[in-house]
From TrEMBL:
<dbReference type="InterPro" id="IPR037925">
    <property type="entry name" value="FlgE/F/G-like"/>
</dbReference>
<dbReference type="InterPro" id="IPR012836">
    <property type="entry name" value="FlgF"/>
</dbReference>
<dbReference type="InterPro" id="IPR053967">
    <property type="entry name" value="LlgE_F_G-like_D1"/>
</dbReference>
<dbReference type="InterPro" id="IPR001444">
    <property type="entry name" value="Flag_bb_rod_N"/>
</dbReference>
<dbReference type="Pfam" id="PF00460">
    <property type="entry name" value="Flg_bb_rod"/>
</dbReference>
<feature type="domain" description="Flagellar basal body rod protein N-terminal">
    <location>
        <begin position="5"/>
        <end position="35"/>
    </location>
</feature>
<comment type="subunit">
    <text>The basal body constitutes a major portion of the flagellar organelle and consists of five rings (E,L,P,S, and M) mounted on a central rod. The rod consists of about 26 subunits of FlgG in the distal portion, and FlgB, FlgC and FlgF are thought to build up the proximal portion of the rod with about 6 subunits each.</text>
</comment>
<keyword id="KW-0969">Cilium</keyword>
<protein>
    <recommendedName>
        <fullName>Flagellar basal-body rod protein FlgF</fullName>
    </recommendedName>
</protein>
<comment type="similarity">
    <text>Belongs to the flagella basal body rod proteins family.</text>
</comment>
<dbReference type="InterPro" id="IPR020013">
    <property type="entry name" value="Flagellar_FlgE/F/G"/>
</dbReference>
<keyword id="KW-0975">Bacterial flagellum</keyword>
<keyword id="KW-0966">Cell projection</keyword>
<dbReference type="InterPro" id="IPR010930">
    <property type="entry name" value="Flg_bb/hook_C_dom"/>
</dbReference>
<feature type="domain" description="Flagellar basal-body/hook protein C-terminal">
    <location>
        <begin position="195"/>
        <end position="239"/>
    </location>
</feature>
<dbReference type="Pfam" id="PF06429">
    <property type="entry name" value="Flg_bbr_C"/>
</dbReference>
<dbReference type="Pfam" id="PF22692">
    <property type="entry name" value="LlgE_F_G_D1"/>
</dbReference>
Length: 244
């Protein structure tokens, strides 16, 4: 009897986690450069005396969907889209280096090139500082130049572009990608940017909605199994109760 309870309860918990993942994906269906989370589970035996035949479902690290999202032309000079594989390096709030596909850049009040979330964009020589009163242009190789109202343009620096393998990256709760080893990924000169365009989220809304409905129905099934287990336990107690 308790085997059924273990199985149904752990499956219900796993399905709730799957719903959380799908909900997060749907919430970011319009976030530029967002990579959909992949949720997977595996069955593991329960450790402990008297429980070698019990199993529970635990979340397994499945990573993220590395497929590119649709690219939309915006015409804005600070919008960039990574063309093909690769990522833009940024400085995370804790000071570490992280990676993103979100290319909606802007210039902060301090004159630093930052992401839409306010994170400084990492240059190959440090942060990229934009002179006041200049127009920013970003080349395909990530080179950032500032064009004043009069005179020649000056090169500010080059955005650090990386292309580590997806298996070497881990996605954090903040949506940023980091190297699993904790080290910084090396710059890859082959990564290219498209200026005046943004890459959209790679979340398939229809697929996510179907997955949410399926998870909800599976959750209801596990709840029914738990109810059946409780009813069977009550009936067994009645049958085994001593006659009066």
């Amino acid at each position: 009897m308790d085997r059924l309870i273990y199985t149904a309860a752990s499956a219900a918990r796993a399905l709730m986690q799957r719903q959380d993942g799908i909900t997060n994906n749907l919430a970011n269906a319009s976030t530029p450069g967002f990579r959909a989370d992949l949720v997977a589970f595996r069955a593991v035996p329960v450790r402990g005396e008297g429980a070698p035949t019990r199993v529970v479902a635990l979340e397994a690290t499945a990573g993220f969907d590395e497929r590119s999202g649709p690219v939309e032309t915006t015409g804005r000079n600070l919008d960039v889209a990574v063309l093909g594989p690769g990522y833009v390096a940024v400085q995370a709030p804790d000071g570490s280096e992280a990676y993103t596909r979100g290319g909606a850049l802007q210039v902060s009040a301090e004159g630093t090139l930052v992401t839409a979330a306010g994170l400084p964009v990492a240059g190959e020589g440090g942060t990229l500082n934009i002179p006041v009163g200049t127009t920013v242009n970003i080349a395909r190789d990530g080179t950032v130049s500032a064009q004043p109202a009069t005179g020649a343009a000056q090169t500010v620096g080059r955005i650090k572009l990386v292309n580590p393998a997806a298996a070497d990256l881990r996605k954090g709760d903040d949506g940023l990608l980091r190297m699993a080893s904790g080290e910084d990924a090396p710059a890859d000169p082959a990564v290219r940017l498209g200026s005046g365009a943004l890459e959209g989220s790679n979340v398939n809304v229809v697929e996510a909605m179907v997955g949410m409905i399926a998870a909800a129905r599976q959750y209801e099934t596990q709840m029914k199994l738990l109810q059946n287990a409780e009813q069977n336990d009550q009936r067994a107690s009645q049958l085994l109760a001593p006659a009066r």
